[in-house]
Amino acid sequence: MRQFHVIATLAIIAFMFISSFFLFDKQSDDTSIPYEYANAEAPEDFSGDNASEEIIMSYMGNKTQKEELGRATWKFLHTMMARYPETPTRNERKSLYDFMMLFSTLYPCGECATHFNKMITEFPPQTSSRFAASQWLCGMHNKVNERLHKPIFDCSSIESQYPCGCNEPEDE
């Protein structure tokens, strides 16, 4: 039953991400809005859309389920960032930004969502490239690890931990 909840949660998250592509009109493919992770600023036209929204989910009482959900979620998010385009379009950047902002209000663990929502408001998603997105998420993961007194991960090796898997399919 536990596995069903984790799978159902991941399916909902994937559905939200995919449907976010259809919610926004195709806009120009302008990728010339660079910004650095160190600055931790959201692009002007992205900020304020979902930041600091009310957390929807209640607190999770079962510690084991909360830990399982956390591990599955980090795996999902890191894999998603590893597959994010190296040079995303403006629409792809906005989709990732919106997904992460909504994710911070909809995460099934209310306590976790509250903490993540505060962090994401202070350190908005970095969407200018695959590298920027994966480094941003690794930094956020480390902030959570620090709060939970868990080991800090070396973000310089994040790409080897969550390979893109973006190779062309082999001929069958």
TrEMBL record:
Sorted UniProt keywords: Disulfide bond, FAD, Flavoprotein, Membrane, Oxidoreductase, Transmembrane, Transmembrane helix
Record-level Gene Ontology MF annotations: flavin adenine dinucleotide binding; flavin-dependent sulfhydryl oxidase activity
PROSITE patterns according to UniProt: ERV_ALR (PS51324)
Cofactor(s), by name: FAD
E.C. no: 1.8.3.2
Reactions accelerated catalytically: 2 R'C(R)SH + O2 = R'C(R)S-S(R)CR' + H2O2
First-level EC class: oxidoreductase
Ranges where the ERV/ALR sulfhydryl oxidase domain occurs: 62-162
Transmembrane segments: 6-24
Xref: SUPFAM superfamilies: FAD-dependent thiol oxidase
Gene Ontology CC: mitochondrion
PANTHER family: ALR/ERV (PTHR12645), FAD-LINKED SULFHYDRYL OXIDASE ERV2 (PTHR12645:SF1)
Protein name: Sulfhydryl oxidase
Organism: Mucor saturninus
